[in-house]
Amino acid sequence: MIKRDRQGRADVNVTAACFVGTPRRPPLLWVPAPVEVLITQAQIRDRVAELGRQIEADYHDRPLTIVAILTGSIVLLADLIREIQLPLRVAVLQASSYKGATTIAGKLSINEDFLPDVAGRDVLLLDDILDTGHTLSTLVGRMSDRGALRVRTAVLLRKIGRQQVQLEPDYCGFEIPDAFVIGYGLDFDDDYRHLPYIGVLDNG
Ligand code: 5GP
Ligand code: MG
Q1: Beta pairing, strands 109-111 & 35-39
Q2: Which atom in ligand 1 lies closest to the alpha carbon of residue 129?
Q3: Could you tell me the sign of the dihedral formed by the alpha carbons of 153, 66, 91, 180, in that order?
Q4: How confident is the model over 62-121, as pLDDT tens digits?
Q5: Pocket of ligand 1, candidates 75, 97, 129, 198: which has the most ligand atoms within 8 Å of its Cβ, to mutate?
Q6: Nearest-angstrom CA–CA distance, 85 and 41
Q7: Vertex 96, ends 91 and 101: CA angle to 5°?
Q8: How far apart are CA 204 and CA 192, in angstroms?
Q9: Which protein residue's CA is at the shortest distance from atom 12 of ligand 1?
Q10: 124 vs 137: CA distance, rounded Å
Q11: End-to-end alpha-carbon separation of the chain, Å?
């Protein structure tokens, strides 16, 4: 039986070791380069909740595996799965094509080492952003090759005017103009993924 205080919070034992160095959040000393906010934290929260409702409605009778594409979709994955009250498996694979530069895509490298068996399952591929479409369309093919029953796609962002491959995402958070965006999982040179909003680096 878990003991609870008057507010209903569980009486958990926090050892001193847990607090070493971080009894409180330190003042924010790290200041990012100037970033123009494109989509706020609140807008993202509301839209991700809506996407969760849609996915719930569509999969209420079909056991789902969400396959998140690392690394950019980690924040979206964490927020989205908590909006989906269904039996749900979560899996990851890694795909990368951008090597530091902001706009030039290289060859796609894929690591499926941690991907569980998806044969016979409904798969929803989750990515941060749909740009040219090469990543998602390649991975849709990979999931089908692995015997997935039905493969759908979900992205937080879709860039207008950049797509080279015909692919309609089944779920899309926001359509954005053609700019290099960072935050909420998206990086520039492996930084800025932890910003809670979507922004554009202001290099002006
Ligand atoms: P695609 O294959 O659709 O051209 O590219 C998809 C991948 O490119 C995304 O998963 C993402 O990692 C990266 N990407 C595309 N556009 C942007 C962008 O504006 N910002 C960042 N940080 N990554 C992007
Ligand atoms: Mg990516």
Answers
A1: unpaired
A2: 9
A3: positive
A4: 999 999 999 999 999 999 999 999 999 999 999 988 554 455 556 899 999 999 999 999
A5: 129
A6: 22
A7: 145
A8: 18
A9: 72
A10: 13
A11: 59
Q: Which residues face 201 on adjacent strands?
A: 35
Distance 111 CA to ligand 1 centre (A): 17
Q: Is the pLDDT of residue 19 over 70?
A: no
The Cα 63–Cα 56 span in angstroms is 11
Q: Which domains does the chain have, with CATH numbers?
A: 36-201 (3.40.50.2020)
Three-state SS at 181: strand
Reduce the DSSP state of residue 61 to 3 states and report it: coil
Comparing C-alpha atoms, which of 124, 99, 96, 121 is closest to residue 108? Answer: 96
User: What distance in Å separates the CA atoms of residue 31 and residue 100, rounded to the nearest whole number?
Assistant: 21
Secondary structure class of 106 (helix, strand, coil):
coil
Atom index in ligand 1 nearest the CA of residue 186 equals: 22
Determine whether 183 is exposed, middle or buried from the number of CB atoms within 10 Å of its CB (0-12, 13-18, 19+).
buried
Positive or negative, the CA dihedral 107, 105, 74, 80 is negative
118-128 core/surface letters (b: 16 or more CB in 10 A; e: else): beebbbbbbbb
Q: Give residue 21's identity as a one-letter amino acid code.
A: G
- For the stretch 25-53, pLDDT in tens is 655 556 567 889 999 999 999 999 999 99
Q: Contact at 8 Å (CB) between 148 and 176? A: no
